[in-house]
Amino acid sequence: MKNYILLIITSLFFLGCSNNENSNKNPYLPNYSFSVDLNLNLPTYSTLKYPSNAIYYSGVGVSGIIVFNTGSGYNAFDAACPNQEVSSCAAMTIKGVNALCSCDKKEYSLFTGQGGMPYPLKQYRVQVINENLIRIYN
Prior knowledge:
10% helix, six-stranded antiparallel β-sheet, 30% strand, three-stranded antiparallel β-sheet, 9 strands, mainly beta
């Protein structure tokens, strides 16, 4: 009987574990694999050295990516409107600390990705290589 209880407790422990991956399940946005390194010493990306600044990087993800300095790290989100069909909208634009969807004019926080809609911004992983180099990947 003790073995069964131990087996149940052990099973529950393993079922409760997470693989620490972002849940990017969104019926409107497909998953694409990519890896991009941004050198913050280059003028194009140097604004990312300062909190609350964002840049748009095209050619990866669904509609490019928006990279944002939160002050305590970096967030990277797909620039596709998360609650619209991909072909119906252009890439989102940066509006201060928010991203603005060109179709429905909804704004999403670049701190959290939330926008009060059913789907938040599609988030990608960010790895800080050193103080001047960051990697964004999916």
